[in-house]
Amino acid sequence: MEIKILSDNTVYRDGIRAEHGLSFWLKYDGQQYVFDTGQGMVITQNAERMGINLAQIEGVVISHSHDDHLGGLGKILALNPAVKVYGHPAIKKTYQQKMEEKRTMKNQVSGRPARIENFIPVEKPLKITEGLWLTGTLPGENKHKEARIENSLVCETSRGLVVLVGCSHAGIIKILNHIKSLSNKPVLAAAGGFHLYKKEKEELREVGQDFAATGTRIIYPLHCSGFTGRKFLQENCRAEIKLAAAGEDILL
Fold this sequence. Notes:
The protein contains seven helices and 13 strands. By secondary structure, the protein is α/β, with parallel strands linked by helices. The protein has one domain (about 1-240): Ribonuclease Z/Hydroxyacylglutathione hydrolase-like (Metallo-beta-lactamase, Chain A, 4-Layer Sandwich), CATH 3.60.15. The strands form two sheets. A seven-stranded mixed beta sheet has the order 7-8-9-10-11-12-13. Helix 5 (about 170-180) packs parallel to helix 6. The model has no long low-confidence stretch (mean pLDDT about 90).
């Protein structure tokens, strides 16, 4: 399995661009996928620079409908019209509403909007392929609208589960505990946006302690995890905290 960061808020590599957004490319069992698409300002340029052909991917997972995760979908559809798009039913509706409004969601060659031709709605846990599955939405009540539709991606490996999250609007610990309720395998790693950038120190301390309780061994806080959140986890979490940015690999 390989995982690369196509889009993130930060970048340290020459020739790669950053934006307020998140996108992963992964290769699993010989097939290529994209998890979230950033805002759409950097995904095609970064992919080309990283040697990734977006026309060859099998599927795109959209965690939730915010622009910094959904915005680049049109760029991929323009290159790969038949690609499978996985997400909560609200994702397709939001995309259709926005694709006429945003130039980033239009086919830059023809000027016509790039439509979703192959949408797979996901509300409950769903297997994409053997060992690769989506969590479905979290059970119970969630006040945040996006938390009610957010999906996370789980990759099974010989060492444990690798979890990719979008913004963790329902809470990263709730997401990990939900995954643990669906699988008896340990969580090896979690990567993505943990939505920690607005949290106070006491809340961050609780998250750090709760991470330990989940048994997660490697943590990649990206995107909306924020600089303060990353630093606090580095100093207060027993798991191995790895910092990364756009253009870099997730190393496990």
